[in-house]
Amino acid sequence: MTTIYNFSAGPAVLPKPVLERAQAEMLDWHGSGMSVMEMSHRGKEFTSILAKTEADLRKLLDVPNNYKVLFLQGGAIAENAIIPMNLLNGGAADYVVTGSWSKRSVEDANAYGKINVVASSEADGFTHVPAFSTWKLNKDAAYLHICTNETINGVEFDGLPDAGDVPIVADMSSHILSRPIDVSKYGVIYGGAQKNIGPAGLCIVIVREDLLDRASPLTPAVFNWKTQSENQSMINTPPTYGIYIAGLVFEWLLEQGGVSAIEQVNIQKANLLYDYIDSTDFYINNIALHNRSRMNIPFFLADESLNDAFLKGAEAKGLLQLKGHRMVGGMRASIYNAMPIEGVQALVSYMQEFEKAH
Ligand SMILES: Cc1ncc(COP(=O)(O)O)c(C=O)c1O
Question: Which residues does the UniProt record annotate as the domain Aminotransferase class V (predicted)?
Fold first, then answer.
């Protein structure tokens, strides 16, 4: 059978050992006689899963004690509205637009107060993060919102601006856990799970405690970070199975040596693909070198009339879901933590073969 490599941007490939373990535990989790899906979220079995999942995430990201970790529903797009509900409260916030997702965050937040776009690379086709020195930051902003890895455009931050006392709120959906971060530099970190963490339906929010008292009184309890943190993310029924799979992914990541170790593999994988793209005129990636994403690598064929043939040939080789996002076109290879280096090697071999044939 052909080995399948899944380059989907999300929902995306998960580590095989995680899926095998989930399969083995499907009908009977640790002698409970139940699947995790069937357990009460308040029972001792599931509360132990949640506690371990949170502890492992804290270990992986070295989350300081003055941060709460929430396991919520609604994905990252829901957070686009939930963030201003929790932090804006009649004030104004700064947003930086570096791709389709941060642009969407601005559109969603606009209904909740004054949103100032303080830097944008839209006029340049979202090919880089504007130099920090050009950002028109407001000292009294309630927060500064950024998306540190733009999944569609393939643009990743290679540093953080100095925002002074303004808390930085970062959408890390598509690169969380792919590289070490200093959590203490952020006010809020959030991300949908379906790329580097687990199944869709779970959103992780890491929030500094002193930011929990700023919610608008109109914020519903399920969307109120303080209420959720006081109730162990259980104001509503949390996405229990998603949390369980996330927990298995965190255990797997710790076994790999943690985030610093996986970062080295991610660098190797990304270099392999970018180096090949840069070595030929047949394929093109226009993103500024220092902002090229290690997780999402969009590329174009110089002759776009070959797109269909490229995708068809890729599929025949078991290289799946390489079609670029509909807003951008071309191709995109998403190579999250769970994509083995063999998958990237297989892709590069196929790209070389296709180039020779055409
Ligand atoms: C960076 C980023 N932000 C937000 C989202 C939206 O996530 P969701 O559809 O889970 O709400 C995505 C999804 O692909 C994303 O990549």
Answer: 4-347
Q: What is the DSSP letter of 58?
A: H
Bind-site residues for L-glutamate:
42
Q: Are strands 67-72 and 203-208 parallel, antiparallel or unpaired?
A: antiparallel
Mutate to test the pocket of ligand 1, among 73, 77, 100 (most ligand atoms within 8 A of CB): 77
Q: Which of the following is catalytic: 68, 94, 103, 195?
A: 195
- Shared-domain flag, residues 352 and 296: yes
Residues 212 and 290 in one domain: no
Segments of 174-317 assigned E as strands: 188-192, 203-208, 283-284, 296-301
Q: Which of the following is catalytic: 171, 225, 226, 252?
A: 171
| Residues 274-296, mean pLDDT to the nearest whole number | 98
Question: Is-catalytic flag, 136?
Answer: no
Residue 220 located in a structural domain: yes
CA of 154 to the centre of ligand 1 (A): 13
Q: How many domains does the chain have?
A: 2
Annotated binding-site positions: 42, 101, 151, 171, 194, 236-237
Bridge partners (DSSP) listed for residue 114: 92
pLDDT on residue 281: 98
Same domain, 172 and 316: no
State yes or no: is 308 an active-site residue. Answer: no
- Structural domain that includes position 192: 17-255
Residue 232 counted as domain residue: yes
Domain co-membership, 160 together with 289: no
Q: Do 240 and 262 reside in the same domain of the chain?
A: no
Q: Which of 101, 108, 252, 323 is catalytic?
A: 101
Are residues 36 and 154 both part of a single domain?
yes
- Residue 125 belongs to what H/E stretch? none
Query: 1 pLDDT exceeds 80?
Result: no
Instruction: Report d(CA 325, CA 195) in Å as an integer.
Output: 15
